Amino acid sequence: MNLTGWLTPAPRRRPRPQVRIDLDVGVPAWLVRALAGAVLVAIVPPVVGDWVVPLLAAAALVVLPHLATVAGLTLLAAAVVWAGEPRLVTCAVLVLALHLALVTVRLTGPLGVAGLVDGRLLLRTGATFVVVQLLVQGLVGLSFVAMDGLPRAPWFAVVVLVGIGAALMAALRWVARHTQ
Amino acid sequence: MILTAGGAAAGFTAVTVLALGVAAGRPDVAVLAVPLLVTAVWAAAHRPERGARVVVRTTTGRHETGEVTAVAHVDVAPGTEAVLLRVSTQGYRSQEALVAGDRPREVGLSLRTSRTGVHRMFRVDAMTESFGGVLVAPPTRTGPVELAVHPATRPLRELPLPFRLAGLTGGHTSRRVGDGYEFHDVHEFAPGDRIRRVDWRVSARRSLDVRTGRLGTLYARRTFATADATVMVVVDSRDDVGEDVSAWAGGADIRMDEITSLDLARQAAATIARAYLDAGDRVGLDDLGRRRRPVPPAGGRHQWERIAQRLVRVAPEGWPDKRRRAPQLPSGALVVLCSTFLDDEASRMARQWRALGHRVVAVDTLPPVRTAFLNGFQDTALRLVLLERRQRLRALGRAGVELVSWTDHPDVGMHVLARARLQGARR
Q: With a CB-CB cutoff of 8 Å, which residues 177-236 of chain B face chain A?
């Protein structure tokens, strides 16, 4: 009886070879996710004054890049902003971070860790990101300029707006269903 | 196009945050929803009318063992931002890529294989995505396509010849007297001899009449005629076993980066056929595993193409009946039999051919076996099988069949056979 048999490693089959997709420039999805997570960790904690929540948010983005994750992060950011005093820098950085998360999810969400993102798509998405980000940062500035004069709506207006949102979503679904 | 669950959740969240911000008079909150909202609205406004159409084409040229390539042509509709491609092939890990969908494009696909033969490769699943991935089209599937991977041939310097060369012209020296290069003898000039064959020096020495100064009898140099060899390459396609013995019974897939016995047989047959054809000989091909007409012996480049096309399609088909007689071969042909000799059928055929007077070369195509994944019973069974095989090969040697192992320096083995002087063999 071989008493040391359990110490010797069992033979393992080598992983199967891989089919290759030959893109001119292909960036691994894990690299895009890791870079986005690193940027989030670098820019968010200094403005919110906390390391744990941004770290968890970045981890969530890296591990589970899904649009629902971005929706959750948006709610989280809204709660953070709601709870604190309005600050331009905080708002601008959070908008930038959320948009970055959205773009990362868009690029790597459908892919596995070893998937490849086309370099051409990266460039196009980057360009779109810059344009939209300029627009949104402009809106951030405008919102802070106009913040003092904005009237507060009654609570039933909130309900109406949520209803409008639901109607918009229903319309989107209808459009999607009739264009299949 | 289908609205994804994530897209719906993101859109609803964006509208909710915007509404809360507006209602509470907090534009700094409301503006957080703008990126999501812009993405959703832009995706709805610029949705593609249809999904991408993908066509997989093989690249032109001959595929040989090693790199195999194909091209996926992706045709996209306006509004498509990206196309998700997943390429898979049996025996390989699949690969995914998200490619830009702004214009039709061609994406290269490739894989490395050690296998030869006809394989179905490059199945492509494609999913079209609108801006932001909010709307997606149902996935489409294209392929896999059939690809013929030819064996790579290797150079052979010297080749064994049949016992008897039957052709009238060629690259080898036969036993007949005729036009050739090797000296046979000096003979009296006879009708039919060419004038340029007259050996004037010998004629002068033997038949010059010194008194009259005239030649009596002329002598001509005779040479051995040249001839070509007829070679029948016979492939035993009934077995296709790899290095991993645990896959022999079919319980596991044969790896695509490991060579099998049939790959070795294809490579051996192609190499030997190519070498003989290059030497100007006539080569034919037969398959022990199929009852179909063999490729009859012939020479030239077209014959090489015929043999290569037949070889690449050689594959095990069911369980063929036992043959009562060995397939009939051209008289005096050299027989090269490529087999694993794991059963008696191939060795029986080889002995029959040898008994009919053919020179038979048995090429052993069993790859080096790996027993790491065998249990004790399987290991014992393998030992018995290999022992039987060894006895079978020894019996072949005793019957006058010459053996070459294709995994162990086949060029040296063929060289030794080419130089061997066989008992009972006539040149």
A: none
Q: Show residues of chain A in contact with B28, CB under 8 Å.
A: 81, 86-87, 91, 140, 143-144, 147
Contact A113, A30 (CB under 8 A): yes
- Based on the fold, state whether residues A96 and A179 are members of the same structural domain: no
Nearest CA to CA, how far is A96 from chain B (Å)? 9
One domain for residues A84 and A173: no
Q: Which residues of B touch A14 (CB under 8 A)?
A: 255
B66 at A interface, C-beta within 8 A: no
Can you tell me the distance from the alpha carbon of B45 to that of B40, in angstroms, rounded to the nearest whole number?
9
Q: Look at residue A1 and tell me if it is in a domain.
A: no
| A40 shares its domain with A108 | yes
Give the contacts of A9 (CB within 8 A, at least 6 positions apart). none
Cross-chain Cβ contact B95/A179 below 8 Å: no
Chain A environment of B373 (Cβ under 8 Å): 11, 13
User: Would you give the DSSP letter of residue B87?
Assistant: E
Task: Note whether B381 and B426 are within 8 A (CB).
Answer: no
Put simply, the answer to whether A91 touches B31 (Cβ < 8 Å) is yes
Three-class DSSP category at B56? strand
Q: Which of B130, B139, B137 is nearest to B40 (CA)?
A: B130
- Encoded amino acid at B373, one letter: F
Number of structural domains (chain A) is: 2
Indicate whether A145 belongs to any domain. Answer: yes
Sign of the alpha-carbon dihedral angle for B290, B292, B296, B302: negative
- Asked if residue A115 lies in contact with residue A29, where contact means CB atoms within 8 angstroms, the answer is yes
Below-70 pLDDT ranges, chain B: 60, 167-171, 173-176, 225, 227, 421-427
- The whole domain housing A113 covers 23-149
Provide the shortest C-alpha distance from residue A105 to chain B (in Å): 9
Q: Are residues A126 and A162 in the same domain?
A: no
CA dist B315 and B309 (Å) reads 12
Q: Comparing A78-82, A148-152, B147-151, B388-392, which segment has the lowest mean pLDDT? A: A148-152
Say what the pLDDT of residue A180 is.
46
Same domain, A125 and A44: yes
Give me the domains of chain B, ranges plus CATH numbers: 53-149 (2.60.40.10), 173-226 (no CATH), 229-419 (3.40.50)
Q: Does the predicted interface ipTM exceed a cut of 0.85?
A: no
Q: Do B91 and A11 touch (CB under 8 A)?
A: no
Whether residues A99 and A88 share a domain: the answer is yes
